[in-house]
Amino acid sequence: MTESTPEGLETRSARRVAETAEPEASGGFFARRRLLVALVAGATAAALAITGGFVMSSSPKTITLDINGGIVEISTRATSVAAALEGEGIRLGLHDAVTPAFDEPLHDGAEIVIRTGRQVLFEVDGEATTEWVAAMDASEALEQLSHLGRDVRLVASRGGGRAEVSLPLSENNGSVAIVADGRTQVVTYLGGSADDVLATAGVVLSVQDLVTVVDVAEAGIGGAGDARVALVVQRVLTAEDVVSEVLPYESIQINDAERFVDLPPVVRQYGVEGSATRRFRILLVDGVETERLLISDETVEPVNHIVAIGTRERPIIPGVSGEPIPDHIWVALAQCESGGRPTVISSNGLWHGLYQFRVDTWQSVGGVGLPSDATPEEQRMRAQMLQARSGWGQWPACARRLGLL
User: Fold this and answer.
1) Tens-place pLDDT, residues 144-193
2) CA 22 → CA 16, 150, 158, 229, 286, distances in Å?
3) Which residues are registered as beta bridge partners of 157?
4) Gap between the Cα atoms of 240 and 89, Å rounded
5) Helical ranges in 71-119 per DSSP H
6) Which listed residue, of 109, 130, 257, 312, carries a Cα 20 to 30 Å from 291's Cα?
7) Please, what is the Cα angle at 72 between 68 and 74, to 5 degrees?
């Protein structure tokens, strides 16, 4: 018997699927008298039980076993694929695949192909999921998954910062394309992890970068030579974006029953603009925003601009509108100015008498001496003269309080 023995197939009694397969529960194997599930290439999974051993023929056959690309020739008297594998002590896992099917008859020169099932993380049209594939390398896995969607890619795990893919990138030292930072380069795959291949190409990953494996033809990658798969590096950056918005204030008019209707509007409160500030955490993949998360939202409300409009009708003002000035007006004015005391003098000595004349103003209407020394009658007379000449503005505060201005 001549054989090229792959790693993990050391003796006839210990031959089995390559040791790189994912460990499975005991229910995923069959013993000498039990075959559980066969995943046949191009068909659905089926269960096959062998209850009475396997049938042997009288004449030996030479067949070839292809176990994950490792080739070995064996001599057997088995008449079926299942019997040949059981005779070699090869136990398949639940997700492993074998071609031909277990119950196929065996002839001299036949080839039995076994592929170890591996659970892979992949994306289909941007949605991440996991699936079991029985493939020898990434290209074969992508081919098996291609029916799921238009954009299918294997996703490299980033445990410990390294990029790892759960199965070889290419068989037989094939070429692998690397797409990163806007350029494509091709390297010879000598085994190892995706991280090793990237290191060979001088591509350094940051912690957040994404690494996926795509089919060169399906992805339309140019400059890939004879490579069937490509490692695609997507640079990922997390940043913060601040969006500010000015909130305008409103202008409001209010009625003021205490303000005369003929006076211009007056500002009671000046308007102040508000603001809305939103902070987002954004995810950029190769410079393109793919996600945006609101992390804070602060609002400063605007202050309204308030203008008061007078609604009070101005009364008929004696002495201005041609009406005679009633006596009670003068009494009220004197009461407001001096408390109705004809001899009072202000604390600074400038203002005198009932109507708080200045001495020079008193003299301008014919008064002599100090206003506070004159009789109440003369003080009123001089006040009437001053009002007729200059109006109620000579007593601005009290005239306004009495509605004379």
Assistant:
1) 888 887 788 888 888 777 888 877 888 766 889 999 999 999 998 888 88
2) 13, 28, 18, 23, 34
3) 164
4) 59
5) 81-87
6) 130
7) 135
Phi, psi values for residue 307, rounded to 5°: -120, 130
CA dihedral 200, 202, 205, 209 (to 10 degrees): -90
Furthest CA-CA distance within the chain: 159
Q: Do strands 152-155 and 210-215 pair parallel, antiparallel, or not at all (unpaired)?
A: antiparallel
DSSP letters spanning 227-279: -SEEEEEE-EEEEEEEEEEEEPPPEEEEEEEEEETTSPPEEEE--B-EEEEEE
- Is 338 or 157 the better-scoring residue by pLDDT? 338
20, pLDDT greater than 60: no
Which residues, other chains included, contact 25 with Cβ-Cβ below 8 Å and sequence gap of 6+? none
Residues in CB range of 203: below 8 A, 6 or more apart = 178, 180, 181, 233
Res 27: pLDDT: 31
Q: Look-up: residue for tokens 């023929």?
A: 57
How many other C-beta atoms can be found within 10 angstroms of the C-beta atom of residue 339?
9
Check whether the bond before 100 is cis (ω within 30° of 0): yes
CA dihedral sign of residues 357, 361, 363, 365:
negative
- Residues 361 and 31: their CA atoms lie apart, in Å, by 130
Residues 299-319 as b or e (16 or more Cβ within 10 Å = b):
eeebeebbbbebeeeeeebbe
CB 58 within 8 A of CB 115: no
pLDDT(91) > 70: yes
Rounded to an integer, the average pLDDT of 222-232 is 89
Rounded Cα distance, 373 and 366, in Å: 14
